[in-house]
Amino acid sequence: MTAANGRPDLVTIGITCFNAAGTIERAILSALKQDWPHCEILIVDDCSSDTSAAVIERLIASHGHARLIRHTKNKGPAGARNTILAEARGEFVAFFDDDDEALAHRVRSQVEHLTAYETRSGARLIACHASGERHYSTGYRMALEAIGSRGREPPHGPAVAEALLLNRHRPDWFFGAGPGSGSLLARRSTFQAVGGFDPALRRVEDADFAVRMALLGGHFIGTPEPLFVQYATSSPDKSPEKNLEAEQAMVIKHRAYLESIDAYHYALNWPKLRYCHFKRRYGTFSLVFLKIFLRNPLFATRHLLTSGPRRLMHERRITRGAQA
């Protein structure tokens, strides 16, 4: 955690922004309040059409360690994060989302957690995720426990890729809220080794990054303590159609791996079930499930029985809000 010159390692805090004029202030202010003594803050405005850039410039005007980078063409979340990685000087890179709020000790806690795990395990390809809490407009609050924040052994290696692509989780590993990029801190060298984020994916680019890291033998650890607040928002790029398109594109990208474990058909078709559920197309849902079931009866039944009730309960709590 200390560089050769005796100063604490530099941490790059990266914030991607797209049409977030109403929320970017809390994200930037929480970055400016971090108690880690040596930070730079890079904010990429991904060609917003609102006043985001003006808001950012006002907020960082008196802070020499914060810098705005403006895209002249929208590149999506992955492209914006890759710009941050290309510009970052820090030993570590932490990503903040443009509508989230980090506690003042988030960076410090994650750096300390990651370096302690390096010492203890000898691993060098590590993603450290922060636990947090998601707030919904209805008043419902949901705990976001980080992947690897519980248990004797954190998830690691190709079995994590299988969990992310097929929902086949080892029972002795804790996957929690999964590997979302808005809670992620890792060494810059880790991002370089994995190859950054895939700009062809407009959604699930963080899951794809985690799949590739897992296939390289990466480890996924998490802080038990909640370190950020995530505010649930909706936008056209979060539609069921966009999610289905991106999820299937990720599966196609990893076809060779999935075929090697005889799971490509399963992985390609399961996202259609989520889409049919969100669109309330229950007849099509039944037909798609039957198609999956005939080829993988055991896994399909187990998957539906484990994920289905959780999804329905989650949606009920969102709708009922604080009363749930």
Give a verbal description of the structure.
- By secondary structure, the chain is of the alpha/beta class.
- The chain is 45% helix and 18% strand.
- The chain has 12 helices and 9 strands.
- It has helices spanning 24-32, 52-60, 76-87, 106-121, 158-166, 188-194, 205-215, 240-253, 255-260, 264-278, 282-295, 297-320, and strands at 11-17, 39-45, 66-70, 92-96, 100-102, 126-135, 141-144, 184-187, 219-231.
- Strands 1, 2, 3, 4, 5, 6, 7, 8 and 9 form a 9-stranded mixed sheet that branches.
- α8 (240-253) runs antiparallel to α10 (264-278) and α10 (264-278) packs antiparallel against α11 (282-295).
- The longest helix is centred in the C-terminal third of the chain and has 24 residues, at 297-320.
CATH architecture of the largest domain: Alpha-Beta Complex
Fourth-tier CATH superfamily name of the largest domain: Spore Coat Polysaccharide Biosynthesis Protein SpsA, Chain A
User: How confident is the prediction overall: mean pLDDT?
Assistant: 92
Rg on CA atoms, Å: 20 Å
Which shape, going by the Cα principal axes? globular
CATH topology of the largest domain: Spore Coat Polysaccharide Biosynthesis Protein SpsA, Chain A
Q: In the CATH hierarchy, what is the class of the largest domain?
A: Alpha Beta
**How many domains in all?**
2
What percent of the residues sit in helical stretches (DSSP H or I)? 40-55%
> Span from first to last CA?
43 Å
The ordered H/E elements are EHEHEHEEHEEHEHHEHHHHH
Q: What is the assembly state of the chains in this entry? A: single chain
Proportion of beta-strand residues: 15-25%
Task: Give a quick account of the main beta sheet: strands, pairing sense, barrel closure.
Answer: 9 strands, mixed
- Count every beta strand, where a strand is a DSSP E run of 2 or more residues: 9
Secondary structure class reads: alpha/beta
Poorly predicted regions are none
